[in-house]
Amino acid sequence: MQRRGFLRLGLSMATTLAPLGGLSLLAGCGAREPETPLAHLYGRDWVHGAYRHYADVYIEVEGRARQQSTGSYKILSQRGVTSLTNLQAREVPFHIRVAKDEQSFRVQRDLPERLTFRAGMSQADRDVATKHWKLARDHIHQDYIEIRHLDYALGNLLSQVQALRIAGDEGRVEQYRICRQHLELSQGGELPFELPYQVSRADYVQVLELLVLRLERDRKRTAALESSMVTVGLTARATDAGSGSLAQNLTLTLLAVTRDAEAMERQSAEYPQGEALAADLQVASGLVHQIQDSAEFKTWLAAQREAEDQLGQLLVILDAVTGLPTSAVYRQMMRLWRGEADYLDYLSTAVMLLPGGSEAARIVKGAVERTQEYRATYRKAVRLVGDVREVKQRLARGELDVGGMLLNTGSQYARERLDRQLVYLRDTTQLEEAQRELESLDALRGPIPEVPTAPQPE
Fold first, then answer.
1. Mode of pairing for the β-strands spanning 105-109 and 94-98
2. How far apart are CA 54 and CA 17, in angstroms?
3. Which residues contact 151 (CB under 8 A, 6 or more apart)?
4. d(CA 226, CA 260)
5. I want to staple 24 with a disulfide (CB 3.0 to 4.6 A). Which of 18, 100, 161, 259 is the partner?
6. Which helix (H) or strand (E) holds 278?
7. Residue 184, H or E segment
8. Residue 443 pLDDT
9. Which three-class secondary structure state does DSSP give residue 371?
10. Is residue 405 pLDDT above 60, yes or no?
11. What is the pTM of this model?
12. Which neighbouring-strand residues pair with 97?
């Protein structure tokens, strides 16, 4: 999605999320007096309705992300692991990358139309090249189908990461908008519209405070979903020519993120009551003042007020404050899915993105530690043997002790990348347990989503 497209989406969200009609970005256009939102309600019904109306926005974003990501996880669990294993076995290098326009994932293979030989190849090399080329050509049509499923599943994750990133960034800015209004009201400022019957100024301020807390909790939830999707995409990508890691690693990651999603309680849109209300108000008031005292908020507020005095203020403000997936977090995520550096570095970054205590964080942290342990063993063997090729051959034959850790040694493609592989699984027992548990998850059972049938370029 291009920047202007994000601006339009940001404007739509800002209009929807504008705090009960106050400080809307559209207010600067100044065409008419602001109308009271939900004017058909009054008293406590209005207070509860305003909170519910606001909360439903993020519930909808989260619900859509859950549904779409679960569909992708179904495809990857039922077909993706096998598809990636088969692609690796074809002995044709492939790459899994986000397209330049950041709109889709693409599995790209370098499969020539004709078999060619390089100068200086021995007859044995020619025989191997011929065997690999024929293998790939024999399976080309089936591989098109598998690649289409992979593209679709990973592309869905990409689109939901974008949606959640917009929602998360916009949620932060919306907190600032509400805190600005809260600050101005505390200084004797005017209400943004006429309050309904039996709704006091104090009621309105209380709703604002609860909405700031609600946004904080919603941002943390959507960030957890977002990071899980990025981790699944990274694990799938690690099977390509940049690493050649075992496709079954994806089984462990899918199990972890699905468990995390199931453990995450659904947020209610209902206004808190009783002791929960008292507790939330105490936390919310402290959060509002914490934000208002922060240097980041003060910088934003100064820039906001300056922008409002400029011509073309709407676009200026949108450029300055709308949550765009050009943020540092989004750029970091795209680097994991697009970069060409060592995938272990990307996996280490993923640990920092995942929420502490989650199953996904535990799995990824274990994979980082296991990979570091394996690579230390590999480097030591290279020093002792003095021949990288010989070390890889011994690893493939199981003659080097790596403590049972599972590596991808089933093809020449994989063996050439033994120095770059990521290691998730400690042994075959862990893999078998993960496979059984993944198959038992109700969320990943049933038919997979329908995948478009348009052919993908080779």
1. antiparallel
2. 7
3. 104, 105, 106, 107, 456
4. 12
5. 18
6. helix 274-293
7. helix 140-186
8. 93
9. helix
10. yes
11. 0.82
12. 106
Residues 112-142 have pLDDT tens digits of 666 667 777 778 777 777 776 676 666 676 7
Can you read off the two tokens belonging to residue 375? Answer: 């690579």
**AA identity, residue 84:** L
Residue 323 has pLDDT above 50, yes or no: no
Residue whose C-alpha is closest to residue 447's, from 117, 74, 91: 74
Is residue 177 within 8 A of residue 252, CB to CB? The reply is: no
First-residue to last-residue Cα distance in the chain: 24
Measured CA to CA, the distance from residue 60 to residue 46 in angstroms comes to 21
User: Is-contact 229 70, C-beta < 8 A?
Assistant: no
Alpha carbons 269 and 343: distance in angstroms, whole number: 40
**Tokens at residue 439, please?**
């198959």
Determine contact, residues 112/458, Cβ cutoff 8 Å: no
Q: Which residues of 409-424 are buried (b: 16+ CB within 10 A; e: fewer)?
A: bebebbbebbbbbbbb
Residue 20 three-state SS: helix
User: Tokens 């004709």 sit at which residue?
Assistant: 114
In angstroms, the CA 450 to CA 455 distance is 15
The length of the chain in residues reads: 458
Enter the tokens of residue 228: 């899980």
Q: Which residue reads 């008293």 in tokens?
A: 43
C-beta separation of 423 from 409 below 8 A = no
Question: Rg of the Cα trace of the chain?
Answer: 27
